[in-house]
Design brief:
Shape of chain A: globular
Distance between the termini of chain A: 49 Å
Number of strands of chain A: 2
Mean pLDDT of chain B: 90
Strand order of the largest sheet of chain A: 1-2
Radius of gyration of chain B: 23 Å
Shape of chain B: flat
Mean pLDDT of chain A: 79
Radius of gyration of chain A: 22 Å
Helix content of chain B: 55-70%
Oligomer: heterodimer
Order of helices and strands of chain B: HHHHH
Chain lengths: 504, 144
């Protein structure tokens, strides 16, 4: 404990040096902008700025790139809340209740709660990262392909169980998302599936064009031509602070989101996205008023926003402790370390304590910078809502097309956004939720790979999923969820989900 | 016909088309799945879910009760986006976006010429300058 605090003191000496502090600030600012812009996620932002860091020392470079990463997690909530367009994939769940809060005239409090929740989650999870990294990383190492498959299956079942409509419709949408995820090169055999000669589909369908299409374009198609256009929200600056009641409603979801996000973040994969889905589902489940979810529940913003920021720190656990990138962004950060002659891995703490602890301390400092940056800017962002919708939506469209195109410089992604926009429009008309499609798309490649790897491990025996303790525990929870979903059919009692509104 | 029954039929059709298209790849076996295994499994699940949605959808709202008052606007916006996708690499970012924003603001929304033209220029040329020139995100240049 004492040694950890001494090391942290060394870290703060490094992180508070003017040059490192400056690059941390630049990283946070750029990251927030990257998060605000629909389609330009942290991966694209870090990729674009990686060459800029070649002239810096290793610590400054790593601090700046990490600042972009968690800055984007902060900024992604803004467009979700104000425009129902996820700035990056992890902000998809914030669209639902954040936008509903904005439509009710509570855009300012929604943004403030997202910023404070992100700050608390970011800070607490860095503390957790500092003390719990070694044992937690060891636990994550026990996850093999069967455990991953069971975890991913459970994630889909949880989402379907918790969605506002029927579990059946949720599962159908998840299956549709998984099917979309089958497009592209099969990782085990190399077959080019369902691509019809379009080379750009080799890497599969990207999450960004699908999310922007399903959430952003579909909303514009639905709203722009309404005979009674939605009332333009004109919040006053003095209404930005959440009320005491809203703080109370946000308190526990922030802490729960922090715990969920950090724990899920440790597990390699699309931790941010999954953590927000799980956090949203948990908040709806524990809420005394689940019917408010989808209509502007404070917990529906506080939980997922805290979770995605906590997952950021969680994702650094395997990266720092083992040198194993759990997420693509961590892979880029590891690449940056190697460019600067730093060897990532378990020996990093001993060999380069200034870099390791400087990086940890810079995350504390970064969270403070982000809070200072974001809270005053909340007023600026809220002013966006003063622009009438017929003027606003062409601007959103341009940002969406630009953001989607810029990720891969591919016009195919723009067509995908268009296709999923129409799909989202029709599904919303038919009263289906579209969020499970996005999760299905994210999970599909991992799920297929882990299933086939598991069967390869067991010489084709499916018993491998029920003979490993972690896997069987995860599957048991999934079976319980399905049984709970089927209970109303047997007992003819009214399912609580029937009282929930559809996602609007 | 209710909305759930329409959706159920659509899901079953998507599943059937996927099954048909999956014939192009080796299915493998239950113990050694091939590249078509997962798509076939998911298509089968989609057919089951679609059929269940159809079967249980008798009490859902009727399709004719779903309002489509915004359809003309939606079609026009979709057409503008399709033009953007078509023109982006043929005409360049600036001209394509100028046409899209100009069409939406001046023709579809009938905003004033001053506001319409100002926003068109800012969005087409301004965003190009910020992203392509300052941030070095390569955008299609077109003719100039």
């Amino acid at each position: 404990m004492l040694e950890t605090l001494q090391n942290l003191g060394l870290g703060f000496q490094v992180a508070l040096a003017p040059a490192v502090l400056w690059y941390g600030f630049v990283g946070c600012l750029v990251g927030t902008l990257v998060g605000v812009l629909p389609g330009v996620g942290p991966l694209a932002g870090i990729s674009l700025l990686l060459p800029v860091t070649y002239g810096l020392d290793a610590t400054s470079a790593l601090v700046m790139l990490a600042g972009i990463y968690y800055g984007a997690m902060y900024g992604g909530s803004t467009t979700s809340i104000l425009m129902r367009i996820p700035g990056e994939a992890a902000s998809v769940m914030t669209c639902i209740d954040g936008y509903a809060m904005a439509r009710k005239g509570r855009a300012g409090p929604a943004l403030a709660i997202a910023a404070v929740g992100s700050y608390v989650a970011g800070t607490v999870s860095v503390i957790a990262l500092m003390f719990l990294a070694p044992p937690l990383a060891a636990f994550a190492l026990r996850f093999g392909p069967p455990e991953y498959f069971s975890l991913l299956l459970l994630g889909l079942l949880v989402l379907a169980y918790m969605n506002s409509g029927s579990m059946l419709k949720g599962l159908a949408m998840a299956a549709l998302g998984l099917l979309l995820g089958m497009i592209g090169i099969d990782q085990m055999s190399g077959y080019f599936r369902f691509a019809y000669g379009v080379a750009e589909l080799g890497d599969g369908i990207g999450v960004v064009p699908v999310a922007v299409g399903l959430f952003g374009l579909a909303e514009i198609l639905l709203t722009a031509g309404q005979p009674n256009p939605p009332e333009v929200i004109r919040p006053r600056l003095r209404d930005l602070l959440p009320s005491r009641q809203e703080w109370r409603e946000a308190n526990m979801p922030i802490w729960r989101g922090t715990a969920i996000g950090f724990l899920i973040g440790i597990i390699p994969g699309s931790a941010h996205v999954i953590s927000t889905f799980v956090s949203y589902a948990v908040e709806r489940k524990v809420s005394r008023h689940p019917e408010e979810f989808g209509r502007g529940a404070v917990a529906g913003v506080a939980g997922p926003e805290s979770a995605n920021n906590a997952a950021t720190s969680g994702a650094f656990v395997p990266m720092l402790a083992l040198g194993v990138p759990g997420v693509p962004v961590a892979a880029l950060l590891l690449a940056a370390m190697m460019v600067h002659g730093v060897t990532p891995g378990p020996l990093l703490i001993q060999q380069d304590p200034r870099l390791f602890w400087g990086f940890i301390a810079s995350m504390y400092v970064g969270n403070v910078i982000l809070l200072i940056l974001n809270l005053p800017l909340v007023g600026l962002f809220v002013n966006l809502l003063r622009v009438p919708y017929p003027v606003m939506y062409p601007i959103i469209l341009v940002c969406s097309i630009l953001g989607v195109y810029a990720v891969n410089s591919s016009v195919v992604d723009v067509w995908i956004m268009l296709g999923t926009g129409v799909l989202g429009y029709l599904l919303r008309k038919l009263d289906f939720e579209t969020a499970p499609i996005v999760l299905g798309l994210v999970l599909a490649p991992m799920m297929e790979l882990s299933l086939r790897q598991s069967l390869a491990m067991s010489a084709g025996h499916y018993a491998i999923f029920v003979t490993r303790p972690i896997s069987v525990a995860l599957l048991s929870v999934g079976v319980i969820l399905v049984a709970l979903a089927l209970r109303p059919l047997v007992s003819r009692t009214l399912d609580w989900r029937s009282r929930l509104p559809a996602e609007t | 016909m209710t909305v759930d029954r329409v959706a159920g039929v659509a899901l079953v059709l998507i599943g059937l088309v996927t099954l048909w298209e999956s014939r192009a790849f080796p299915l493998g076996s239950l113990h050694h799945p091939g590249p078509a295994y997962m798509p076939v499994l998911l298509a089968a699940l989609l057919i089951v879910f679609g059929a269940a949605v159809f079967a249980m959808g008798g009490g859902a709202p009727a399709l004719r009760d779903v309002g489509w008052p915004e359809w003309r606007h939606a079609v026009a916006i979709f057409a503008a986006c399709a033009f953007a996708a078509w023109g982006l690499e043929r005409l360049g970012y600036r001209i394509t976006m100028a046409v899209v924003v100009g069409f939406l603001l001046l023709v579809l929304e009938r905003k004033g010429w001053v506001l319409g033209l100002a926003l068109t220029i800012v969005m087409a040329w301004g965003s190009f300058y910020v992203f392509d020139t300052l941030l070095r995100v390569p955008l299609p240049r077109g003719f100039f």
